[in-house]
């Protein structure tokens, strides 16, 4: 009596249903990759400079040049040109981020063409599809890639690759060994702070808000592809990363998926300037003091150099000598994190958490 199911002719319950299931899985994966590419586009669109801002800059330059008498407008002309360069740098950073994000998503689609090319043979197609799914879909047997996103401080919107390699090797890998320079990338943020980066730049609150959106989108783009993420932030970048912790917790992102390494953190619970003066608002400068970096939301390590006026502000501000020391530290000590040697970094002394952590977001 002939067998009645699962025959080798492909009309039973064997290869064809398996191939269809594999194809459905790949289609779902393709949808996720498309969403990742779309998120990269939205991030780039948000980060690009509005055309009217470029037009205003050029119009101002023409007016300054036309009214220039004996070179009196030279400083203003130079400042306008410098601002124009910043605008273009912002656009370049946005496009570079979009290219990196979209390219990563497109690269994941390659196995789909392999699947389609094998459809002539149901059995062969099923095997190729299963191989494609196992190769491109995250699973318990395949370790997730550890991707590090590096954010610069005020005035440093696009960290260079040499900077990225240095801070990841010195401040990320020693604590989080799964994150190395091999998968580390620079993340553009506006990195502006009114009066610190110039009177024609964004206020710090506005810059932090834009940077927070960019970071959140970048993290979710990596998580959507099955990667784990480490965020390395310096100064303003550390503050943005601190605020992002609350967002991720509210969104239910697992603590095992995202880690943070912060240097020169102004929200440092152990003496950060914004932690010391939690709740203070300087409306004329567009700056709010958001408090401390959350203590227990995600795996976090914070590196602080003693006397850094932004990350190690005096506990007793009425001590004028200590205040003067902090001001000098903000100028001369705060920028030193990227130039410390590995030997200096490993001598760091661990301190207990102090200060009031940011309240949970509900």
Account of the protein in words:
- This protein is globular.
- The chain has helices at 15-47, 51-66, 74-107, 110-117, 122-136, 161-172, 204-224, 236-251, 273-276, 320-332, 342-345; strands at 146-151, 184-186, 228-234, 258-263, 281-282, 287-288, 300-303.
- The strands form two sheets. It has a five-stranded parallel beta sheet with strand order 2-1-3-4-7, with helices on both faces.
- Helix 1 (15-47) runs parallel beside helix 5, helix 1 runs antiparallel to helix 7 (204-224) and helix 7 (204-224) packs across helix 8.
- 49% of the residues lie in helices and 8% in strands.
- By secondary structure, it is of the alpha/beta class.
- The protein folds into two domains: 27-110, PPE superfamily (Ferritin), CATH 1.20.1260.20; 146-346, Alpha/Beta hydrolase fold, catalytic domain (Rossmann fold), CATH 3.40.50.
- Helix 6 (161-172) links the parallel strand 1 (146-151) and strand 2.
């Amino acid at each position: 009596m002939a067998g009645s199911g699962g025959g080798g002719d492909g009309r039973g319950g064997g290869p064809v249903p398996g191939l269809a299931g594999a194809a459905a899985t790949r289609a779902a994966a393709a949808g996720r990759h498309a969403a990742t590419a779309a998120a990269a586009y939205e991030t780039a669109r948000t980060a690009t400079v509005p055309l009217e801002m470029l037009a205003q800059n050029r119009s101002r330059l023409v007016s300054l040049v036309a009214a220039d008498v004996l070179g009196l407008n030279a400083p203003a002309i130079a400042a306008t040109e410098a601002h124009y360069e910043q605008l273009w740098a912002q656009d370049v950073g946005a496009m570079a981020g979009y290219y990196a994000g979209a390219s990563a998503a497109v690269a994941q689609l390659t196995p789909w063409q392999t699947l389609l090319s094998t459809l002539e043979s149901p059995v062969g197609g099923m095997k190729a599809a299963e191989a494609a799914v196992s190769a491109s879909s995250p699973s318990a047997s395949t370790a997730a890639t550890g991707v590090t996103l590096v954010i610069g401080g005020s005035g440093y919107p696009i960290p260079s690759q040499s900077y990225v390699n240095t801070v990841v090797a010195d401040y990320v890998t020693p604590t989080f060994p799964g994150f190395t320079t091999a998968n580390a990338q620079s993340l553009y943020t506006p990195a502006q702070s009114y009066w610190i980066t110039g009177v024609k730049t964004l206020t710090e609150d506005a810059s932090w808000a834009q940077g927070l959106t960019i970071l959140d989108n970048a993290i979710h783009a990596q998580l959507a592809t099955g990667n784990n993420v480490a965020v390395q932030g310096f100064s303003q970048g550390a503050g943005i990363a601190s605020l992002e912790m609350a967002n991720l917790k509210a969104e239910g992102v697992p603590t095992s998926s995202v880690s943070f390494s912060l240097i020169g953190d102004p929200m440092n619970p152990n003496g950060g300037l914004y932690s010391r003066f939690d709740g203070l608002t300087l409306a004329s400068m567009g700056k709010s003091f958001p408090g401390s970096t959350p203590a227990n939301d995600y795996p976090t390590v914070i590196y602080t150099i003693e006397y850094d006026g932004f990350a190690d502000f005096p506990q007793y501000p009425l001590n004028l000598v200590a205040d003067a020391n902090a001001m000098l530290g903000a100028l001369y000590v705060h920028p030193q994190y990227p130039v410390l040697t590995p030997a200096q970094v490993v001598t760091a002394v661990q301190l207990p958490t102090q200060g009031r952590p940011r309240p949970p977001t509900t």
